[in-house]
Structures are given as structure tokens and as C-alpha cells.
Amino acid sequence: MLFRQIFKAYNVSWSMYKTPTIYFAFRYAATKSKFDIKHIRNIGVLAHIDAGKTTTTERMLFYSGKIRAMGEVHHGNTVTDYLEQERKRGITITSAAVTFPWSDHQINLVDTPGHIDFTTEVEQSLAVMDGGVVVLDSSSGVEAQTLTVWRQAQNYKIPCIVFANKMDRADANLKLCLQGLIQKLEVTPLLLQIPVRVKDKLSGLIDIIDMKEFKFIGEQGEDVMEKQLTEVDGVAWESAKEARNRLTSALADIDDNIADFVITSDSLDGISSKELTEAVRRVTIQRKAVPVLCGSAYKNVGVQKLMDAVVQYLPSPLDRHDADILNLFGHNLYARVFKIMHDKMKGPITFFRIYSGKLEKNQKIFNLRAESSEQIKNVMIAYADDYEEVNTVTAGNVAAVTGLKDTKSGDYISSSQNCVRDLSATLAKKKRISEKEAYQLLGGDVIIPDPVFFCTIEAPSLSVQNAFELALENLKREDPGLRVTTDPDTGQTILGGMGELHLEIVKDRIRSDYKIEADVGPLQIAYRESVVGRAKITHESKVAVGKYANNVSVTLSVEPAPPDNKDLLKLDRSSQELASKMSTLTQQHLKAMKRGIESSMFHGPKVGCPVMNAKFTLNWFETHRSTPESVVASATAQCVQKVLAEAGTSLLEPIMTVEVMAPNTISPKVMAELSKRRGQILNISERKGTMTITANVALSQLLGFSRELRISTSGTASFTMEFLAFLPVDPTLEGEAIKNITGFYP
């Protein structure tokens, strides 16, 4: 067992099966020694909103000895939900980092948001995790946001374990959770525990690998009692043995060692707990299967065993990352930023995951994206919104530092520019790529989704304009999903975000954190324009810079492209003359042209919305090599505006997938509300009096939906929504959409 410190000797008790038994009682003890990298676990807690992940995190901190009393979400006093808005709303908005010891290991845990509006925070945190704990509400199984965070985790190839929470509820259904994992997430679940109920109340768990029953006693479940099951335990023994055989059979299908044992012994019995545990760890790290545990965080049942599973089955930093890159850096610093927050006393606090080397107080670092150096002031270990200053944090760990002003989320850092240059050259030779490609590989690539909502925001007076701009700058740096732009026509400041709640939280934080009552305009939809035709245009520009005249001739063609097209500009080499001409194009001028294209695509010809689904071809380019990049970019931008106008664009609107959960008795009201909003019903499912309705709805039709749903169902229904795609606006409604964008009917 992973826990060794005996809390008290023997306690004679009757089991739920009326058999006199002896339980061994243990109190889990946290160690405070320094941890080798193989004893470090960097994990995230992922879940649908209200599945109980913050409550689960709070229990982990309590049982590890990190806090003396447990907070509750509904009381607004949890450790990881430390923002005023989080405690007021009872949801997680930012990712909070917490470090705590458990059973001779160190766990660095990131409690991520569960609301879809804050999905960018989840993405940044996932990038630095080695493993994940997916928390399910066992009365609901796999829900909409569960699917989203699971897909995100799989994009980063993160091994996960599942915790079926809220097993104390009367409608808890472990089978529903397992079916959801198979059917919705398309994974192989490995059930490692079965719940024990007495008079329909959750009283403990049976570990089917060790064939032991566990009870969690004491005022807060802090004392764990265990009992070895034997044949005299009757039903409990038979149920556990049957579940163990199913686990062995499932492992035999995906693990060679277990398969060899089963074939050799011609039996599912006889395999040791150690062999099963090692096999579960192997297939988890290989992402062939997902261990499933159960319990109730709120009722203090099963969280200690969940923490044991984190240590036993999730990978250490040594099990996870690109060995070539880690070996390349060796003892040199290599780390990634995953979060930035601003503290009134400390200033900007930057959170790093360290892959190699170490972060030290007053250390100078090099930012690969910005290609610039900065100096760290203090190095700290994070405890949500509290910090402990240290001199050094080593590889495999999470650290928070002060003193950095230009570093952003997703940035990679190293010890010096010379170090990165030398290592890029080494990596380029090894992988047979250019040094530029090697540098880009080391620097990573952060993809931020486009916002779907926006609104205007202004300072209430000129006297607070500077403070207002600083507030926006700080919030933008903290939240990569927040866009702050200036309308070129009106000069107004525009906020772009992932949802109504996202922008509402930004407004609240400006008021609460910076004491500014900003003037916020009505919520608007982020429409797009899509290229519908083909066109080819030549644009000639003559610009005098000082005493010199700069002539630029650009010929561009444009055509429709799929949404996932990444090749924005290609060079026309269809003839020997063109191929020769394109070979004379300097890299500086090519970059300038791409900047010109990108800037012009922010304002389409139809209604001034950003353009997508376009692919450009450079058919001809002529200028002097000394022509400034700004002149080339400007000429290209003007050519793009002409060619887009010639090709024509159509209007697209964001479509959302909405999932509404409501009692059966009022589901007709929900259906009527969705139909009124032009919703396309995709699926309707019913379970124990609750109807779940899934539909695709245009975002423009969802403004005010939350309020209307709350009123029409007396607050008994809830919903989530997730961006699906940009699709053409209904022709009969295009005029209204254009009026919403421009203020005038076409």
C-alpha cells in the first residue's frame, strides 16, 4: 500500500454483510522530503461545470495536510476559486496552481475552468500537464463540456484517470458513466473500484485489484479503514472477484504481459495485485485505456484512493515528453508559460512548467517567441493566490516568478539566446530540418480560437483613461482568449470573447480589481465573410520615402478555401519565368506581403467583418530590393482589398451546439423555445425524469436565451453551448444581420 503511517491499531467492527471482521485503520500522511523527478506528478482536474472538481481539489488539499479545514464551493471559501467572481458565482474561471505532497510524491495540480467560455485557460493548462483527472457527475455521466475537455486533453496526448463523483446521490449510476466513456469518448474504461451501499447510502468502496474494502470515517473522512475480503464475505467477495476477472480480461486484450499470463495459466485467477497495478499503469500511460474510480468528494468518500491512483497510474515527467528535446537541453533551462496574473503587491506573476534545468532567483532568461531577454526577480511555489518564496525550482515542477513584463501565455524560455541558437543547430542536424524550423519547433505554436462575441468598452472619463488602458492590458495578458482591438473608423475599444459570461467577467473584474466603472456597449455577434468567387488583380503603387521613389507592382489571385486551410499565400511557379521571378523575392518582402494580406482580411468588402476561407496566390511581384517592408505591406494590402471586392464574399454566422437539461414535465417549453430560435434538434434523451435536448442554434438567436430559459422553466433547466462552425446566414435574415453589424439595412 502507498500509505504506511499507522494511525491506530485494530478496530473490531461488523461489516455490512453481518460478518465479524477486523479492519486496519490508517491515517494518510503527507511527506515533506525533497522529491526526485520520477516522484513528481503534474496533473489537471477536468470536468463539466458543477461536476465537483473544485470540491475534489479541496479534499485533496485537506487530506494532504496542505489546509486545516475544507472550504465549500457554496460557501465561497475554497482555495482554488480565489477570485471574487469565482466565489460569488460558484464556478472556476481561471486555472489555479497548487502544489502538495502525497505518499512520498509531489503533486502539482492545476484546477481548470469547467465553463466553455473559459476554454482558452483550459488549453494553456493542458499544454503543461503530464496527466489528467476527469471528474464526472455520476448522476449525469459524460456531459457536453466533458467531451470538450476530453478532446482538448487528447490533442495533447494526456493520459487520464476518471473519478465518478457524487456516488452518494440516489440517482448515481456508475453504469451510465462507463457507457458514456465507451460510446461518447470512445475509450476503454477499466473499473478499479465498486461502491458499497448500506440502506441505499454510500458507505465505502471495494478496491478490486487488492480485493479490499475501504471505509472513510472521522468527522471529515480523514481516517481510512481497510478490510481484506475473503470468501466468508459472501456477496461482496463474489462481486469483487467477478469485477477483478473482468478487469483482467480487459487488460489481456491490450497488454501483452497480462495476455501472456492468461494464455499460460488458462485462467483469469491467480494474477497478483502488483502485476495488475503495473499493467494498469502501462496502458494508462500508453493511452490504451482509462482507469475508473468512484466516490463522493462532498461526502468525503474515496478522495484518498483517488490520490493514490494519481501516484500509481499517471506518468511522471520522465514518462511523457519528447526525449530528443529534453536530452538536447540537458541541464539548460527549458520552460513554458501557462498562466499570468497580476498581484497588487508583486506585480505580474508568471507561471512556468519547467521541462529541464532550473529557475533561480534573479536569473536572466531568453524568450523564444519575443527573441528577447528578461530578468526574473523572485521565484515562488504557488498555493492558489498565496506563494512561498524559494531560491530554486528544478525540472519537472511548476514555478511562479515575478519581474517579467513581456512574457505571454504559451511562451517558451531558455537560459540565453546563444544556448537556443546552438541547440537549434544541433536539433536541425539531428532531424534534418532547417535551423529556422528547429527554432520554431522549440518555440512551440499557440493557437487561440477566434472570439464569437464582442462589445465596445470605454473609460467613464479621461481622468481614468490611463488606468483603464492598463487594466485592459493586464487582463489581455492574463487571458489569451480575450481580444482587445480598436475600431479604425470610430476609434472605440472593442472587446472580443468566447461567450456572454466571459465578457461579463471581464467587465466585473475591471470594476472590482481596478475600481473603474467602464461603459460597456451591447453584446454583438462575431460574424465572418467568406470568399465565394475567384479573381485576379494587379495593383501598382508609387510611394516616396525621403528622396527615393518606391515602385511596387503586385498581382494577386484569390479563390475559396476550406476552413482548415493554413496555406494563406502560395507563390505561382507555373512557368520558368515565374519560378525565376519568385526566387528573387526576399524573405523580408515575403513576410511583409503576408502581413499585408492578414491586415486586409480583418475588414471584408461586404460589411467589414473578418474574411475567412480564402487562399491567395502571388502571380507577380516587382520592386527594388531596398524597398521598405512597410511599403510592400501597404501595396499588398491594397491589392487584397481590390481582389476580395472583385471575388465577392458571403456573410457567415457562428453556429453553436446547445445542450439543455430540463425536467420531463417542462421539456415541451424548452423545445418550443429552441424552435422559436431556429434551433435544429439533433438528439433527445431521457433519464429518470430529466430530458436532455441537443440542438444546433445560430449564436445570434441565443442572445438572452439564458434569461428566457430561466424564466420559462422557473430555474429548473440548465444549458451549455459550444462553438460548432461558421455557416452561411439564412438569406431571409441576412438583411437583419447586416443591420445588426452596420446599423443600417442594406
Automatic annotation (TrEMBL):
Among CDD domains, the record links this protein to: EF-G, EFG_III, EFG_mtEFG_C
Tell me which Gene Ontology terms the entry assigns under biological process: mitochondrial translation; ribosome disassembly
Keyword Signal listed? The answer is no
Q: Tell me where in this chain the Tr-type G domain is found.
A: 38-318
GO MF annotations for this entry?
Answer: GTP binding; GTPase activity
One GO cellular component term noted in the UniProt record for this chain = mitochondrial matrix
* Matches recorded under InterPro entries: EF-G-like_DII, EFG_II, EFG_III, EFG_III/V, EFG_V, EFG_V-like, G_TR_CS, P-loop_NTPase
Q: Give the record's keywords alphabetically.
A: GTP-binding, Mitochondrion, Nucleotide-binding, Protein biosynthesis
| Tree of life domain | Eukaryota
- Spell out the Pfam families in the cross-references: EF-G_D2 (PF22042), EFG_C (PF00679), EFG_III (PF14492), GTP_EFTU (PF00009)
Q: Which PANTHER family match?
A: RIBOSOME-RELEASING FACTOR 2, MITOCHONDRIAL (PTHR43261:SF1), TRANSLATION ELONGATION FACTOR G-RELATED (PTHR43261)
Name this polypeptide is given: Tr-type G domain-containing protein
| Naturally occurring in which organism (per UniProt) | Bemisia tabaci (Sweetpotato whitefly)
